[in-house]
Specification:
- The chain is α+β, with helices and mostly antiparallel strands.
- The protein has 2 domains: 1-53; 54-138, OB fold (Dihydrolipoamide Acetyltransferase, E2P) (Beta Barrel), CATH 2.40.50.
- It contains 2 helices and 8 strands; from the N terminus they run αββββββαββ.
- The chain has a 5-stranded mixed beta barrel. A 3-stranded antiparallel β-sheet has the order 2-1-3.
- The longest helix has 16 residues, at 2-17.
- 21% of the residues are buried.
- The mean pLDDT is 91.
- The site of zinc ion (ZN) has 8 residues, from loops.
- Zinc ion (ZN) is lined by residues 26, 28-29, 31, 40, 42-43, 45.
C-alpha cells in the first residue's frame, strides 16, 4: 500500500511538469478525487483512474494567512489566502488562492459573493511544482 501511495504522488508531480493537473476518477461512481488518492472516498472502490481536471472551481471560505505564520516560500505568490476549494468535478479540499487581499475578502463577504469562482494554476516552488488557484475576476 505504501508503495502504491508513493507512485500516486510521483505521477501527480510528473504530470504537473507536463502542465497537467491530475486527479483520480472512480469508474464505478464517477467521483473525482483531488488531490489524487487511490481509493474512492465516495463509494470505497479501490480501482480509480487518472483524470485531468478542468481546473474550474469555487472558493467557499477565505482564511487570510496570519502575518507571523506566513511561510517564506509563499512570499513569491504575492497576496494570497487559504480557503475551501470545490472543484467542478466535486472534490473539496483546502487550497491556496492568489490575488486575495483583506479588502477583497471583506468586499466578497459583504456582498455575499461566496462561493467565488477560481481557476487552478501550476506554481513553481523550490525544486517542484504545486497547484494553486487564482481568483477569476468577473
Ligand atoms: Zn466511487
Amino acid at each position: 500500500m505504501a508503495i502504491k501511495l508513493e507512485k500516486v504522488t510521483e505521477t501527480f508531480y510528473l504530470k504537473l511538469e507536463e502542465g497537467k493537473i491530475m486527479g483520480r476518477k472512480c469508474p464505478k461512481c464517477g467521483a473525482v478525487e483531488f488531490p489524487p488518492v487511490y481509493a474512492c472516498n465516495t463509494c470505497g472502490n479501490l480501482e480509480t483512474e487518472w483524470y485531468e481536471i478542468s481546473g474550474n472551481a469555487k472558493m467557499h471560505s477565505i482564511v487570510m494567512p496570519a502575518a507571523l505564520s506566513s511561510k517564506p516560500e509563499y512570499k513569491a505568490l504575492g497576496k494570497y489566502a487559504y480557503g475551501e476549494i470545490e472543484l467542478e468535478e466535486g472534490s473539496r479540499f483546502n487550497g491556496v488562492v492568489r490575488g486575495m487581499t483583506k479588502k477583497k475578502r471583506k468586499q466578497l463577504l459583504e456582498e455575499g459573493k461566496l462561493p467565488v469562482p477560481v481557476k487552478a494554476a501550476i506554481y513553481q516552488r523550490d525544486g517542484y511544482k504545486t497547484v494553486v488557484f487564482d481568483l477569476v475576476e468577473e
